[in-house]
Amino acid sequence: MADPVDLLVIGGGAAGLAAAVAGEQRGLTCQVLEAQARLGGRVHTVETDTGPVDLGAQEINGDMTAVLDLAADAGRHLSPLPTGGAGLTVTGDAQRRRPAHERPDAWLALLTDGAPPAPGSSVADLLKAADLPQAEADLAQTVTAELFGQPAHRLDAEAVRRELATYESDRDPDEFQLRGGFGEVITALAGQLRRPPVMGTPVQTVRVVDDEVVVQTATAAWSARYVVITAPPPVARWIDYRLPAQQELSSLLAGFVAGDLIKYTAVYDRPFWRYDGLSGAATYTDPVGLVVADGSVDDGRAPRLTAFLGGPTARTWAGLPTEQRDQQLRHQLARAFGPAAAQPLAIHEAVWVDHPWSGGAYNSQVRAGAAADSADRLAAWGDRVVFAGAELAPRFRGFVEGAISSGRAAVARLG
Question: Where would I find the Amine oxidase domain in this sequence (predicted)?
């Protein structure tokens, strides 16, 4: 048996590290257990010949104060994301320049501004009832797949509405990025811990024994007064729990489906799209779920296009050989931006489909047929064993900002 602590945190992503820091600030002895060989979870920055590249989370807006405070305290450079120029909608063999006021995600107003969805309805039901023009309906399908990593018929509409309601800002989410990558936030959080996280330590069992919680891994048993579990629900449900209210917990965890996403960063020697008056933003209706943006950093180094492919198309591509995925991406970039887009200096790929420790990306979602309030109930579940994560956040749900706030909130409600 390892030395007992006051608080064990399962998961070394933003939520877990924030929970451990908050616990230590309360005077608790804390230990983080991380299944992977690295910290960060769905934050993953790698060093390349042309600078740091975020394979996971990347975007920040000016109201995400927890992330901004960490970056400021660590003296990290915040780079504005490029926004000038026209965006594109790519359909079949055609591409159309979008007016500045036109937003591909405008359909989300059906959820944010309209009446609450009927109980048990899916996002597909909502879109069908809205009877959108075909062009708008096609955009809604592709934006849904990219944002949520699942097709509209697999998503509970009320759960999506609740998620959108936690976005406490009138600003776009893609205002800034960290020049050194989002991993700098993870480094800043981890640097505040008194005990280093234990790496490569997947948790097998969590059980309550008398007045303590015992956590079993392949190599050791750990005991604590409290446990905060920050593994995403589709991963957390594979842990063997022996806890009070076991049936309710199992039902809540089963209500989530992991998002399917592949992220690409294509690096070029010059931002050729800007010379055509383009912003680098493109939304494709075919393949469904493909969205591109200018991800360049303001350091004068090689410019970048960042592509996000979500939903069933991401799952299909994930089953292809790497070389074939590379060819597919080059073809799609050339459809929008011309032949130069098919000749990047480098392509950095991150396949988040069926990720063993994150489940997927950007997040997991409440599936159609599950309780719409599953995220809120899981965030409030338990007393000595509690849950946290971006999916459960009280604000900015689904973002790193939300993960940090969720980790802190979980510790705040411990007895």
Answer: 15-414
